[in-house]
Amino acid sequence: MTDTALKSEPADYVLPHHPVRDFLTGSVASIGITFILVLAVGLFWVGPKFVSFGNVSIMGTFLIVPLIVGAFAGFALLSGVVDLSIGSMVGFSSAIFALLLSMGWDPFSAAAVTLAFCLFFGAINAVAIVGFGAEPIAATLGMLVALRGITWVLLGTQGAIFAFNIELFNLVSTQVFGLPLFFLLAIGLTLLAALIVTRTRIGRHVQAVGGDDKAAARAGISVKRVRAGALLLSAFGAGLGGIVFAGQLGSAARATGLGLEFQVYAALMIGGYSILRGGVGNPIGGALGLLAVAGVSNILDLLAISPYYVNIIVGLLLLAAVLLDRLRGGDAFE
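Given the sequence above, the corresponding structure tokens read:
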């Protein structure tokens, strides 16, 4: 080979993108395989009952709120921000929504006002983090505590607000093809979020900001605007989750949303998101993480095994997710 030919060779050869190969080597494939293994174990130990419409419907009912919250909170993670206030935001929104219903408000007006309050508190998070440069974990931890306190004040000495609305309950309990309508809507919302993340300029900007905010700024992307928008989306999703919770239960209580942030973020991490670095993750992977954890919990319930084993399994899955995250090379965004 001549010197001219050698000089024409690229210094580093990069394999061209291929959809199938990219999928198999990505984070979604890992949780996809895990989800398939959970299904296989469930079918082996429990039998066909595990995938029956009745059992899937029960699991789906409990997954509606985590799926909704996770789809929106994932945007904050992708932008490089951890919003710890989502669990308390769910509890607050359920309380204010139930309070308005108990005062005779119609569900649509009560939902609109509730979401406005949630966006207001989300804006406070955005101002603290984006405007003043506060650490996201510290700022949202403060909001978590504050919202939990406001929720307890709203609930009063009884610790609960009962506001059963038959039309809202019937809507939330509607089933389509044997599955909860809102569960199917939550799945649809997840697919829409995945489409935005992977196929739109907005999604690319969110990933770029989370992966390397300085490079994103040099490319002309408004880092502050993207992160503020992601925090508002996170608050909006938590508000929706609280409204659905109140509709399902016909009430709001002190335990509503308690610990939900850990449930959602654990599932998102298992599904391929990274807490330590932004720009990594896919809403489909996050949803599969929630489904896998719910499947493990359901298997133990059906076999009458102590539910505390779920924590052990989820902890091991989290450790495996962190290890895989590091083995993938640590690049946040390419």
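The longest strand covers residues 160-162. Try to locate this feature in the token string yourself.
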